Amino acid sequence: MAAVAAFLILLLATPAAYAVDYTVGDSSGWTTGEDYSTWVQGKTFTVGDTLLFTYGGTHSVDEVSKSDYDNCNTGNSIKSYNGGDTKITLSSPGAMYFICPTFGHCGQGMKLAINVVASSDNSPTTPSPPSGSTTPSGTPPTGSSGTPSPPSGGNGAASIGNNGLMLGFSLVLGAILAIIS
After folding, report:
1. Domain carrying residue 41
2. Average pLDDT, the chain
């Protein structure tokens, strides 16, 4: 009986350890013409999750301050990434801001603002839109709040990287514990 209880506790605790890999922009990637404020809706970014930026040679990724994000200022980046595939692990809670430093791209909407929560907190993560921001052209207007509704179902291209591995480990460990007792 103790083995069954231990197995159930282990099985229930295992999902909390999963990190999610988010592909920014889903299948479109990091490019002009995307609305990243809509893409972020309904997603919860947690410490340990990763952002994967996939982009072509004319783009790159700069992590910037909120002020530089609001003003599309590329001169003071906190970190800069290039090379087509950039994987950023979210290592601490708080707001993070990313822009494409290629001239004119940030102004065309190639920018991303997220809020990272501590791993024990599962609250929604939509940073407030920057002051003075406008809805990109081609995006239908939303309700009076100006914030689009979250998409129904799932987190887009988010994938739970070790889901099968952890579940398999839990099942094997549970079976071993059941046999031993």
Report:
1. 20-161
2. 75
